[in-house]
């Protein structure tokens, strides 16, 4: 890539900081078996937690109607997301032999968005998160197959049973908030921080398409989310994370959903 020319210090200040180094530097590329092994390590536990473990443990939780299953799903999926975060930590430690922030932020692309054409970093590039967040929200309107009301959190929490359960229930609100947090720390750091920068050798310029496909199929624990994930999420934060070589794009856009549901949960608790 050619170095962008900036005529004067004043022009450089107006343009923002410029970075000419490729963010792939210093990142080990994975083979196809390694990529698939990491995908299995994320998808399999979540699938087992949702369809086998949670139903088997639901009688350990109190409540009427669907509440025991919802409680069991929340706990089991939270543990699955925590596992994904720990997997990220282990993979980075194994690759880099350190967890120093100065290293972690580079190898997980935890850097401000970088223009692929000019090398400019941050600044107005952050404005992209506004339309991208709207595109992500539009994924809710993508047609999908049957969504089971007793398993889908968004459907359940909008029901009378969900609203009654959440009223004044700070303990379970804390569990839900933890699940939201690790949804970002697990999914985004694993798929956009670890996998996406390490898929170029196998998939070339189509690495973001492969990443989006794997991320869609990962949702075996909630398959009704797959159409929206493939159609909307791919262009809302998978491709932008690759284009701007910044995991923060995915974290911020994906985190918009977390913020929305977090506010909703605490509004119901305080009713």
Summarize the SSE layout with pairings.
Blueprint: H1 9-15, H2 32-57, H3 67-96, H4 101-107, H5 129-138, H6 153-157, H7 160-166, H8 170-195, H9 200-203, H10 207-218, H11 226-243, H12 247-269
Task: Describe the structure concisely.
By secondary structure, this protein is mainly α.
Q: Termini separation (Å)?
A: 56 Å
Q: What's the helix count?
A: 12
| Proportion of beta-strand residues | under 5%
Segments where pLDDT lies below 50 for 5+ residues? Answer: 1-15
What's the overall geometry?
globular
Work out the number of β strands.
0
Q: Indicate the structural class.
A: mainly alpha
Q: Oligomeric status of the shown chains?
A: single chain
SSE string, helices as H and strands as E: HHHHHHHHHHHH
Number of domains: 1
Main sheet attributes: strand count, strand direction, barrel closure: none
What's the helical proportion of residues?
Answer: 55-70%
- Mean pLDDT equals 90
Radius of gyration: 20 Å
Can you describe what's shown?
The protein is mainly alpha-helical and 271 residues long. The protein is 65% helix and 0% strand. It has twelve helices and no strands. The longest helix has 30 residues, at 67-96. It starts with 8 loop residues before the first helix and ends with a helix.
């Amino acid at each position: 890539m050619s170095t962008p020319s900036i005529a004067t210090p004043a022009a450089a200040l107006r343009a923002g900081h410029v970075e000419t180094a490729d963010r792939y530097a210093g990142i080990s590329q994975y083979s196809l078996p390694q990529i698939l092994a990491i995908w299995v390590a994320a998808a399999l536990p979540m699938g087992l937690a949702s369809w086998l473990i949670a139903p088997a443990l639901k009688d350990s939780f109190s409540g009427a109607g669907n509440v025991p299953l919802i409680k069991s799903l929340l706990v089991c999926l939270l543990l699955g997301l925590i596992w994904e975060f720990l997997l990220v930590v282990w993979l980075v430690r194994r690759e880099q032999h350190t967890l120093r922030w100065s290293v972690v932020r580079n190898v997980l692309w935890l850097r401000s968005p970088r223009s692929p054409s000019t090398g400019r970093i941050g600044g107005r590039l952050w404005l992209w998160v506004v339309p991208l967040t709207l595109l992500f929200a539009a994924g809710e309107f993508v047609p999908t197959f049957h969504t089971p009301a007793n398993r889908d959190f968004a459907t359940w929490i909008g029901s009378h049973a969900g609203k009654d359960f959440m009223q004044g229930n700070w303990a379970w609100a804390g569990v839900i908030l933890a699940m939201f947090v690790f949804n970002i720390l697990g999914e985004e750091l694993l798929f956009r921080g670890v996998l996406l920068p390490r898929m170029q050798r196998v998939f070339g310029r189509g690495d973001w398409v492969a990443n989006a496909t794997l991320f869609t199929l990962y949702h075996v624990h909630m398959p009704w989310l797959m159409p929206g994930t493939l159609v909307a999420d791919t262009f809302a934060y998978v491709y932008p994370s690759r284009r701007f070589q910044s995991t923060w794009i995915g974290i911020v856009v994906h985190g918009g959903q977390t913020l929305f549901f977090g506010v909703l949960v605490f509004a119901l608790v305080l009713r």
